[in-house]
Amino acid sequence: MDEKNTDETRRTGRRRFERDHPRLWASRHVVGAVAGLLLPLLGIGLLLRHLVAPVLQRVRDAVPDLDLPRWPHIPWPDLPWPDVELPDLHAPSWVGAVLAVATYVVPVLIAVAVARHEVMTRRRSSGDGQSADEKESESAHCPGDKR
User: Fold this and answer.
1) How far apart are CA 102 and CA 19, in angstroms?
2) Residue 135, pLDDT score
3) What angle do CA 39, 42, 45 make, to 5 degrees?
4) Any residues with CB less than 8 A from the CB of 19 and at least 6 apart, and which?
5) Mean pLDDT, the chain, whole residue set
6) What is the DSSP letter of 126?
7) 98 and 88 in contact (C-beta within 8 Å)?
8) Which residues neighbour 18 within 8 Å (Cβ) at sequence distance 6 or greater?
9) Buried (b) or exposed (e) across 54-64, using 16+ Cβ within 10 A?
10) How confident is the model at residue 147 (pLDDT cuts 50, 70, 90)?
11) H-type helices in the chain, by residue range?
């Protein structure tokens, strides 16, 4: 019975925090997206530095230096290529920068949009003072239940 009361107390505290701090509650999506990007990048970097690099060094040390023969010089023929002037088209420099970071920024922007949507939904549902979770929990109780 103690465990059930503890769970209800935690749930009530979570709901109160969610109701009192909707932006902070919704920001967990943004934090999750940023962590989802940074942790794998950092993890792969550490993995490569501490596990793969020593193995590659041992392989390099184990393989003897071989004196390979030089490739022969091949006299390639000079072909008369047509001299065509193509227009010089370049994308603006900012396009390259945006495309380079798009794979990292897009998940964070999606998380911000989801968090904003959640805040707006919670504001609409708590217009009468109750959150959607509280309404669900009240409807789940029996009419004669005194909880």
Assistant:
1) 34
2) 53
3) 145
4) 122, 126, 131
5) 80
6) T
7) no
8) 25, 122, 131, 133
9) eeeeeeeeeee
10) very low
11) 2-20, 22-26, 28-47, 53-62, 93-125, 132-140
Cα(143)–Cα(71) distance, rounded to whole angstroms? 90
Note whether 122 and 18 are within 8 A (CB): yes
What amino acid occupies position 85? E
Q: Is the pLDDT of residue 140 over 80?
A: no
The per-residue pLDDT for range 110-138, each reduced to its tens digit, is 888 888 888 888 888 876 555 455 555 55
Identify the burial level of 19 via C-beta atoms within 10 angstroms of its C-beta, where 0-12 means exposed, 13-18 middle and 19 or more buried.
middle
| 59: Cα separation from own chain's centroid | 35
- Closest of 98, 121, 99 to residue 29, by C-alpha: 121
Two structure tokens written together for 48: 């490569």
Q: Quote the CA–CA distance of 54 and 64 in Å, as a whole number.
A: 17
